Amino acid sequence: DGEEWEHRARRELHTAKGVFGQFGLVQSARRIHEVEDSPRITKQQVAEVHEDFQSLLRKNAKLWDIHLDPREARYTATGSALDQLEAELAGASSEAELRAVASRFLQAMRQKSVTQLVGPLADGCVQLADRRGKRVHLELAGGDVLCPSNLEPLFDVLPHLIRNSIDHGIESPEERGEKPELATIELAVEANDNGVAVRVSDDGRGIDAERVVERAIGLGILDAGRAAQLSRDEKLQLIFADSLSTAEDVTETSGRGVGMAAVKNLVEALGGTLSVRSASGRGTAIELHFAARAVAS
User: Fold this and answer.
1) Angle 61-65-70 from CA coordinates, rounded to 5°
2) Which residue segment(s) compose the domain that 186 sits in?
3) Tens-digit pLDDT profile for residues 31-49
4) What is the largest CA-CA distance in the chain?
């Protein structure tokens, strides 16, 4: 319906704005920010943003080495990967095994590493923190993990979690007390036979669950009776509700209550789950988990 379309449009535009900002495309990010300021977003506005983006890609495809046609994409293989392929082909004893070896190799060739997908996120993290008067270092663990292709869209929304930590979790140097002035945000990715786990954690102030509940009640997201029945985990999950933000003002990165909802919607669409752990004065960790069946789908 119209309201759900509006929520979805705002989530996707906010995500696109974050990606543009991450890659230094300031004018494109500002254009979307202006659209977000509209009381109601129209399909015409979304179409114009989409066309602006496509035009930008067409103009810079060669400069950025972008292949708009997937059939023209180029892939590289390391010497060790080719050696492994040769060994597996030599060891195959049937046509079915040969096909399986080739299929695994081609699938791996098309996968990108976490480092490739993250892009210049660390630089953007430092720049945003500087604008907020904070000092932050982003640590990446599992950068060499190859991401299943169906989970690649996840890396478009992960910056929402990073920015949320900077805007709401990390304190100013004066507020950090005995903690190091240089705050730490960690993005950790792990893949094994059980699936893929992605964790974004910080050593900030933690989430004030009761404040989140008060905000949700004030916005009509839930009533006081229902709020009284919530467990702490359920209260923490409210940070992913559409239109909920504890920020007092709207900035280019926060205050609209859209970014975290975008994370939740995409994670669930990809078959994953979200969990939140937070301790006052010690920080917050948000973990996204995708079981093996979701990764393989």
Assistant:
1) 80
2) 112-296
3) 888 888 888 888 888 888 8
4) 67
